[in-house]
Amino acid sequence: MMTSDSLKPVENSIMKKLSERLAPQHLEVINESYMHNVPKGSETHFKVVVISDQFQSVPLIKRHRMVNDILEDELNSGVHALSILAKTPEQWEDSAHKIIQSPPCRGGAGL
């Protein structure tokens, strides 16, 4: 019998790795593949929201590099796009937990 978790191996891998390595206070892994010209059920386009104390005094570009390094295997084996929101807990509170919606796909669908 297949569980819903077994149907999302990439999403689950991303969640597990970021949880283990960054000990986030808040973590969301959003599969945005449905917004793109890919087969139904694809796991190719993701947005991650990572709120961690480990980002204190770390410039934004280095935070993104940290996430990219952690997810190197996924990025090299099928994840086509990764949007990253990486904040400290204080920045997350100051932003009122606002997550900006990704723009619609502009490629591959004749748009």
Describe the overall structure.
- The protein is of the alpha+beta class and 111 residues long.
- Helices cover 32% and strands 18% of the residues.
- It has helices spanning 9-22, 60-70, 72-76, 89-94, and strands at residues 26-31, 45-51, 81-87.
- A three-stranded mixed β-sheet has the order 1-2-3.
- The protein is globular, with a radius of gyration of 15 Å.
- The N and C termini lie far apart (39 Å).
Number of helical segments?
4
SSE string, helices as H and strands as E: HEEHHEH
Characterize the largest beta sheet: strand count, sense, and whether it forms a barrel.
3 strands, mixed
List the uncertain runs. none
By DSSP, the count of extended strands is 3
How far apart the termini lie comes to 39 Å
Strand order, sheet with most strands: 1-2-3
Derived structural class: alpha+beta
What gross morphology would you assign? globular
Summarize the structure.
The protein is 32% helix and 18% strand. With 111 residues, the chain is an alpha+beta fold. It is globular.
Fold topology:
Layout: H1 9-22, E1 26-31, E2 45-51, H2 60-70, H3 72-76, E3 81-87, H4 89-94
Parallel strand pairs: 2-3
Antiparallel strand pairs: 1-2
